[in-house]
Amino acid sequence: MKIALFTETFLPKVDGIVTRLTKTVQHLVAAGDEVLIVCPEGAPDTYMGAQVLGVPAMPLPLYPELKLALPRPMVSDALEAFAPDLVHVVNPAVLGLGGIWLAKTKGYPLVASYHTHLPKYLEHYGLGMLEPVLWELLKAAHNQAQLNLCTSTAMVAELSEKGIQHTALWQRGVDTELFRPELRSQAMRDRLLGGRSDTGQLLLYIGRLSAEKQIERIRPVLDALPDARLALVGDGPYRQQLETLFAGSAAHFVGYLAGDELASAYASADAFLFPSSTETLGLVLLEAMAAGCPVVGANRGGIPDIVSDGENGCLYEPEGPDGGAGSLTAATLRLLGDPEQRQQLRRNARQEAERWGWAGATEQLRRYYRGVLSAQPQVSLPG
Predict the structure, then answer these.
(1) Residues 143, 249: one domain?
(2) What is the DSSP string of 244-271?
(3) In angstroms, rounded to a whole number, what is the distance separating the alpha carbons of residues 328 and 218?
(4) Position 63 confidence tier, pLDDT thresholds 50, 70, 90
(5) 53 in helix, strand or coil?
(6) In a domain, 273, yes or no
């Protein structure tokens, strides 16, 4: 098959969407498919055998890490030259809308996928009143597609409830060869501690430092655990505010890590805290679980698809007058309180992650593609 992928985010940016796309492209090409990636400029001209078309872009005002790429004639020309069997738009916003328009006007079958829960982001940027408008825009865009893929059962249900049609589940994936418990090391642990003594529990957050991730909820956890340390791995537009918020605490801002270093960070911590309640999936949770790091996540969105409370991690309730801080603290204390139970959670988390390789997720996607091309979408959930 020849697949044109339109995405609002790609390399060199690092996030859950980019991880899913890079792994998907790798496995599509390995299966013999030809891939064209249309994305904001900055990526290499080729990636793992796929062609990459970088479109001139400008930073998004509220979120400078993201680049806004406006569709232009070069995109139409490249698409015609590539002659895809199918167009797949990932999180259509601006460039993706151009992909939808080109697919419809040129008669290419169209698949869309939903990865970022933008309506829930709005409230964290003081724009909550726009949520109904955004849902209408998303509905108008996604309902142009023959198939709309979501990365969790919760998102399949919510999008269907909002009037988005032809939804199906695109199963999760994680690199269990990279993320593994054996990479636990004292050297990485010392790096995460940032010079502090290793006398208590080492808590870990990995991801974007942005308002919608609700990282401020971890501060009361530190206050309740005076011997605990916190390592925050990643960067983003909210870093300065978080540095102020965590001033005087045992928090260390590590910056970006990647590859084996990132995998070692997961494996070397005692608990992974992910307070965000806006996730469509939460890939970092799967990565932590693959590395054998016990996790605490919100009982919202796609996270309960991954974390079974008390079995392979702990869930907290993100609502309430304190913004869920008390529940997050209680869940963390529960996870850390019994060393024997924590070891069992580690083992169970690794076993859960081993069920979800990228090869299986990509083969499921290829079945969806073939179903769209035959005009008989196969909406089968993974067993």
Answers:
(1) no
(2) HHTTTSSEEEEE---HHHHHHHHHH-SE
(3) 8
(4) low
(5) strand
(6) yes
pLDDT tens, residue by residue, 296-338: 999 998 999 999 999 999 999 998 788 899 999 999 999 998 8
Backbone φ, ψ for residue 376 (5° rounding)? -135, 75
Q: Which amino acid is at 22?
A: T
CA angle 239, 242, 247 (to 5 degrees): 125
Q: How far apart are CA 242 and CA 375, in angstroms?
A: 49
Is residue 381 situated within a structural domain? no
The verdict on 166 and 186 lying in the same domain is no
Distance CA 295, CA 136 (A): 35
- Indicate whether 346 and 361 sit together in one domain: no
Rounded Cα distance between 147 and 112, Å, is 6
Q: Of 89, 84, 67, 94, whose CA–CA distance to 11 is shortest?
A: 67
Radius of gyration of the chain from Cα atoms? 21
The amino acid at residue 212 is E
Q: Are residues 111 and 188 in the same domain?
A: no
Residue 200's domain spans which residues? Answer: 181-353
- The number of residues in the chain equals 383
d(CA 152, CA 301): 8
Q: Residue 39, Cα to own-chain centre: how many angstroms? A: 17
| Other beta carbons within 10 Å of 182 | 10
187 and 163 in a common domain: no
Q: Quick check: is 220 in a domain?
A: yes
Token duo for residue 152: 């969790």
| SS3 of residue 242 by DSSP | helix
| DSSP conformational letter for 311 | T
pLDDT tens digit sequence for 243-301: 999 999 999 999 999 999 999 999 999 999 999 998 888 899 999 999 999 999 999 98
Residue 107 in contact with residue 144, Cβ under 8 Å? Answer: no
- Answer whether 306's CB lies under 8 Å from 290's CB: no
Q: Give the dihedral of Cα atoms 327, 116, 14, 59; nearest 10 deg.
A: -120
How far is Cα 89 from Cα 68, in angstroms, rounded to an integer? Answer: 15
Q: State pLDDT tens for residues 97-134.
A: 999 999 999 999 999 999 987 777 777 677 778 888 88
C-alpha span between 303 and 279 (Å, rounded): 7
The terminus-to-terminus CA distance of the chain in angstroms comes to 25
Judgement on whether residues 368 and 345 belong to the same structural domain of the protein: no
For 267-276, letters b (16+ CB in 10 Å) and e give bbbbbbbbbb
